[in-house]
UniProtKB/TrEMBL annotation:
Listed InterPro entries: O-acyltransferase_WSD1-like, O-acyltransferase_WSD1_C, O-acyltransferase_WSD1_N
Lineage summary: Eukaryota, Viridiplantae, Streptophyta, Embryophyta, Tracheophyta
A GO molecular function held by the record: long-chain-alcohol O-fatty-acyltransferase activity
Pfam families, alphabetized: WS_DGAT_C, WS_DGAT_cat
Organism: Kalanchoe fedtschenkoi (Lavender scallops)
Record-given protein name: Diacylglycerol O-acyltransferase
Major localization class: membrane
Family: In the N-terminal section; belongs to the long-chain O-acyltransferase family.
Keywords from the named record: Acyltransferase, Endoplasmic reticulum, Membrane, Transferase, Transmembrane, Transmembrane helix
Signal peptide (from-to): none
Membrane topology recorded in Swiss-Prot or TrEMBL: Single-pass membrane protein
Length: 387
């Protein structure tokens, strides 16, 4: 095994794989099985890497297909439970409140549509250490993963009274802010400790968050997906919303990142912006061709968050230690995926090393930022118990 152990060996293998493209004269997928001489950090002695061309389907389609090939580890004859999206029951509202909600919905949609159009044509993020050049998609990628405990994520969720998605997005914003603060300090050659604020003023940093726009939300059985008029059709049915980072340090109360994520995402859900971005993209493809259609390239990064298997699973009789997904070839220097598996939350980052030369540090920032958020949540829970 190469220096750095099994994880580094897999990382280097993926880096070399991203230098190649899929042969378009053959089926648009390939499989690579790596038998290891020592376990990975998550205990796997072998890793299966499946590479798909994105024209085959989006993450929801491919994850549904993957789940159809697996079984529960506790019962080899039973398919795994499909992740379920929980929605709070609607409260009875007065006519005045319904009218206010409707007006807010229309306003949010209008603002999102105009922002998406502006971003598509001229509204560009401020140059920053996360934003790569327009040809970033041509470069090979470093694909790395870090694992968090779902029990810890749920603890933060319960204390903050938000959602798991809010916690994930809050930890991501905290990590990116931490990373940017360090990079700006290094660029300015400022010798300060990590708590000092090196962030420029009026910094525009946004992420494109991918949204599933199918009629049926969440994962569906494969027989439902393959039905001719299914509301969960196979394919690429992904819109996006624009998530603005405040790029502000909250060392005094890291939970502010989670609260801010909750406020932003609640507003984005009360909007048709993601659906507009999907249909607008289809219009561009049908009118001008696929080369002119892409997710926004004027933002600083892309982000995708997807639930995975709820319990430990097996695939063809082999236990699955972890699940991860990522992309390469996109015109962004940074793509972050978050995916759950049983009691784990895996962050997978895909970076262009020409822009982000220290991806290991960015992974460390994800872990450390979440630890700070968890510590703040535990402190808040202790104070609540004492009162």
């Amino acid at each position: 095994m190469a220096d750095g152990g099994a994880d580094k060996y897999i990382e280097d293998f993926l880096f070399e794989l991203t230098k190649t493209s899929i042969d378009m004269s053959k089926p648009l997928w390939d499989v690579h099985i790596l038998n290891l001489s020592e376990p990975t950090s998550q205990g796997a002695m072998a890793v299966t890497i499946v590479r798909f061309h994105h024209s085959i389907g989006d993450g929801m389609s491919l994850m549904s297909f993957f789940l159809s090939l697996t079984r529960k580890a506790s019962d080899p004859n039973t398919p795994p439970s499909l992740p379920v999206l929980f929605r709070k029951p609607a409260k009875r509202q007065s006519k005045m409140m319904l009218a206010w909600w409707f007006m807010s919905f229309i306003w949010n949609t209008l603002v999102d549509v105009l922002t998406i159009l502006a971003t598509a044509f001229f509204l560009v993020d401020t140059p920053n250490p996360l934003k790569g050049p327009e040809d970033a998609g041509k470069n090979p990628r470093r694909i790395m993963m870090r694992c968090l405990s779902m029990d810890d994520v749920k603890l933060v969720k319960d204390v903050s009274k938000t959602t798991i998605n809010d916690v994930v997005m809050g930890a991501t914003e905290a990590a990116l802010t931490r990373y940017l603060n360090r990079r700006y300090g290094e660029e300015n050659k400022i010798r300060k400790n990590g708590n000092d604020d090196n962030l420029p003023k009026n910094l525009r940093v946004r992420g494109a968050i991918l949204f599933n726009v199918r009629v049926l939300p969440g994962f569906q059985p494969m027989d439902t997906i393959m039905e001719k008029r299914s509301g969960a059709k196979w394919g690429n049915r992904v819109g996006h919303v624009l998530y603005p980072l405040k790029v502000k340090l909250h060392d005094d109360n890291p939970l502010e990142y989670v609260y801010k994520a909750n406020a932003v995402m609640n507003r984005k859900k009360a909007s048709l912006g993601s659906y507009f971005s999907y249909y607008f993209g289809n219009f561009i493809i049908n009118t001008f061709g696929i080369k002119l259609a892409s997710l926004p390239t004027n933002t600083s990064f892309w982000f995708s968050n997807m639930p995975g298997p709820q319990e430990e699973i097996t695939m063809f009789g082999y236990p699955v230690a972890y699940v991860g997904c990522s992309c390469y070839g996109q015109p962004m220097a940074l793509f972050i995926h978050a995916i759950t598996y049983a009691d784990k939350l895996n962050f997978v980052i895909s970076v262009d090393e020409h822009t982000i030369s220290d991806p290991q540090q960015l992974c460390d920032d994800l872990e450390q930022s979440f630890e700070l958020i968890k510590t703040a949540a535990m402190a808040k829970r202790c104070r609540a118990k004492q009162q």
